[in-house]
Amino acid sequence: MSGSAPDIAPPRTRRTAGLRGDVNLELWGWLFMRISGVVLIVLVFGHLIVNLLIGDGVHAIDFAFVGGKWSSPFWQVWDLLMLWLAMIHGTNGVRTIINDYAERTGTRITLKALLYLAFVVTVVLGTLVIFTFDPCPPGSPADLLPSICFA
């Protein structure tokens, strides 16, 4: 019969055909969003408590505070994990929105390419900053160094 709607499988039907085989990427994406959301809550609130409530609070946050914090491998890993999980979580969420609302294939591909490019640039630069940050670079003029540095 012409003009009739195609048959649509019930929502819980497992898809076994196609390039992906039995792997349901949307299920794994859904699970990742729930698990990473819970982990991010712990990471973000831990970050806020340490940076804003303990010690002198927000008034203590300056170049020296960040330099001292990132001199510890614990805080480097903490902030790196927070950066990576937040970026993957957010990118997956925006990818879902693009898939839901971008009707034309070309628009969808362009938007997702820009999204993935922004993800890669942010993650690479953020990771580099966390692991290469040096508040006291050697050879710098003493009058330009923060007070925590010994010239």
UniProtKB/TrEMBL annotation:
Coiled coil: none
Residue ranges of the TM segments: 31-54, 113-133
Signal peptide, first to last residue: none
Pfam families: Sdh_cyt
GO molecular function ontology, one term from the record: metal ion binding
Annotated GO CC locations: membrane
Alphabetical keyword list: Heme, Iron, Membrane, Metal-binding, Transmembrane, Transmembrane helix
Subcellular location: Membrane
The keyword Cytoplasm is annotated on this UniProt entry: no
Name of this chain's protein: Succinate dehydrogenase subunit D
Lineage: Bacteria, Bacillati, Actinomycetota, Actinomycetes, Micrococcales
